[in-house]
Amino acid sequence: MPLPYNERTHDCGALRGADVGKTVLLAGWVDNFRDLGGMVFIDLRDRGGITQLRFDPTTDPKAHEVARSLRSEYVICVRGEVVHRGEKVNPNLPTGEIEVKAHEIDLLSKSKTPPYLIADEIETNEDLRLQTRFLDLRRTPVKRALMMRHRITKTIRDYFDRHGFLDVETPILTKSTPEGARDYLVPSRLEHGSFYALPQSPQLFKQLLMIGGMDRYMQIARCFRDEDLRADRQPEFTQVDVEMAFVQPENVMGHVEACLAEVIREAIGVEIKLPLPRISYAEAMKSYGRDAPDLRYGMTIKDVTEIAKKTDFKVFREPIDAGGVVRCIVVERGSEMTRKETDGLTEEIKGIGAGGLPLVKVAEEGGNVVFQTGIAKFLENEDVKKGLIEATGAKVGDLIMFAAGSEATVCKHLGWLRSTVAERRNLIPENQWAMCWVVDFPLFGYDDEEKAVYPMHHPFTSPKDEDLHLMRVGSDEIPPKEDILKVRAKAYDVVLNGIELGGGSIRIHRSDVQGKVFKLLGLSDEEARVKFQFLMEALQFGAPPHGGIALGLDRIVMLLGGFDSIRDVIAFPKVASGACPLTEAPSEVTTRQLRELGLDRLRT
Ligand code: ASP
Q1: CA 334 to mean position of chain CA atoms
Q2: Which of 60, 78, 97, 544 could form a disulfide with 103 if both were Cys (CB 3.0 to 4.6 A apart)?
Q3: Is pTM beyond 0.85 here?
Q4: Which residue is closest in CA terms to ligand 1's atom 7?
Q5: Which residues have a Cβ under 8 Å from the Cβ of 595 and sit 6 or more positions away?
Q6: Mind listing the pLDDT tens digit for each residue in 53-71?
Q7: CA distance 109 to 106
């Protein structure tokens, strides 16, 4: 009689000392086998973990014989008795107190020799691992990622369910959405020359759900963007998508931070203090040089433009005269940095567009604070020196690093410098989870090359009520660019350790405001109608004030699990070229398929 593998009593990670004496039925993969002078030991593995099996030739010669023929990754089912390991307890294994003395075994499936060892730490390159992802999935880190992802997704769904959100699915075959990345297109068979777009997000649909009276919506939604890939980018990725009717930013932020706090507690047992700090975009850029500030460490950026005006230093004066700024960061005990280190930073910062890296060391000479090396000779004026020390709080032994130029470039350079120096000098405390909201984003950005205004978030994001006058809503007037760029949005991003987890906004529900936004973006009424026709139409039939957010699920799992890449937390990810090594997608199709789609002219 074959063993009833469908009646397994435990998984391979479940048995403990308290189970000694029980008869159990286990099934799984051979992780490891050792034939020790007659006694055969097998490590049996399944999703739950590993249990050691012992086959003794004197008690069960038949089972022992089968056990001797086993090889890595064979699939077996065994029945046996749980026994204590006595002196041989393995404290590194959850099941290490016991082993199963097996007396019956069935070989369910043989395996070819795997191309690499199925172990926790392996050097095998990622391409090969992904080609054989069915083997890679058996490794603990990969299993752990998927299990954690499941737990996080479940926590999120439960949170929103408890608070009255409906989980609604939205179409995958659809029309362009407004996120502004490149679309994936799917040709229509029935209407040659027409294409569906895969959604970059469910943005338009979730707004329609609100207009349709669904009140609160959430979806774990797959999104598609045809962009160049990076470690934290995949052509298809998952968003926790949320929308609510009759809300202000605080309501959306309140739910999202409570949900994230629950997720973090559930996933890694850390308590996040709520409410999260709110930092304006302007403040984030000024003090951290980024719109996603890392609050785990200080070294904030200080503005010293007024003091720099008092110097004759050309590198400071010229940008200031052109309307720019001079700012700096203070590296605590940075004087100990070697010439090699600072020269290295200088070269790198030049690589992102800076002219150089002006710096000084703060030292002491005869009881006086003095500046040394770098640009010290330009800062000798007592007033300048005192002013800088006061404005920056720099102490003897510190190093001050400057950037001068337009506001935007200075933010970029010092933002880079702050995080790079923090990383290199180990200033980032471990196991800290610093979260915040960044609010009051500008509604519009300006593309210098295209000479055009673009939406910072998407064109349905609402301006702040108090900034409507800057847009001249209610008149046909096009305001000057300075005013347009001053308009702030009811938009918010949630940030963890300097990484944006997601962002959203309150949407425009007034057609006059929406019309004006399109106009300022250079879209004619007609163009807007063609692009977003159904939303424009719906907005005219009683749209409630509404708003929402989308969070990057892959990124959340990656950060909480301590993984390096979002590929690590996706079951079947793609590589940098956009290809799937396992299925070899994208791949050629038959001429017949192309003909049906009216695309056969593409084949040469
Ligand atoms: N759909 C937006 C995005 O994917 C998020 C939102 O506004 O809710 O960025």
Answers
A1: 31
A2: 60
A3: yes
A4: 504
A5: none
A6: 999 999 889 999 999 999 9
A7: 9
